[in-house]
């Protein structure tokens, strides 16, 4: 009985520490992923892998395009169109194939959900198709030359991560502590595409730092 009691005591101390360590590791991995995504988007845009209006200037991409698992957008008569499967995928891909596993316009990794938004003609955020890429409704070619953003939030707040992260075309990785009665959590509970911005439905606007955002959360740079 004494041995059992000792084991129980050790477990009561060790398990919360293990959970906290896993949560911290997930957050660190999410930050690293967001920084890697910044580099991937810069490489993708500068290579003109997508130039859907044929003006010679590259555009930013979504997860499934960056991972090479769906056809890239192409230009037809100067307008965006869907590429051909088996012909127009990015090769070599910039991101690893698991990033291209998109469900509900989102991809998951190490306890976090990630979602990229590209701009429409009014610079409002447009998510990629539910299973990845763009097959019918396309982001605006001109705005995609300059704008994109991505959010990362926990699959289960408090269990797989706490903080929420954001990055776009003009900022380092930002975070908010994601506390309160309704934290961002799960596939149906993530930030809206304009959440971290200062102007609703405009991902070309400035980021709303220190509580000046659309979602009124305190977004600050990751230290």
Structural account:
This protein is an alpha+beta fold and 223 residues long. It has one domain (2-221). The chain has helices spanning 2-46, 63-66; strands at 73-76, 79-82, 107-109, 112-119, 125-127, 149-154, 164-168, 174-176, 220-221. The strands form two sheets. Strands 3, 4, 5, 6, 7, 8 and 9 form a seven-stranded antiparallel sheet that branches. A two-stranded antiparallel sheet has the order 1-2.
Strand and helix map with partners:
Blueprint: H1 2-46, H2 63-66, E1 73-76, E2 79-82, E3 107-109, E4 112-119, E5 125-127, E6 149-154, E7 164-168, E8 174-176, E9 220-221
Antiparallel strand pairs: 1-2, 3-4, 4-5, 4-6, 6-7, 7-8, 8-9
Task: Write a concise synopsis of the structure shown.
It contains two helices and nine strands, in the order H-H-E-E-E-E-E-E-E-E-E. The protein is an alpha+beta fold and 223 residues long.
What brief labels describe this structure?
223 residues; alpha+beta; seven-stranded antiparallel sheet; two-stranded antiparallel sheet; 17% strand
Which value, in Å, is the CA radius of gyration?
Answer: 20 Å
Record field, number of beta strands: 9
Count the domains. Answer: 1
Structural class: alpha+beta
> What is the overall pLDDT average?
92
Distance between the termini: 48 Å
Sheet with the most strands, sense and barrel status: 7 strands, antiparallel
Q: What spatial form do the alpha-carbon principal axes imply? A: globular
Q: Give helix and strand order, one letter per element, not per position.
A: HHEEEEEEEEE
User: Would you identify the regions where 5 or more consecutive residues have pLDDT less than 50?
Assistant: 4-11
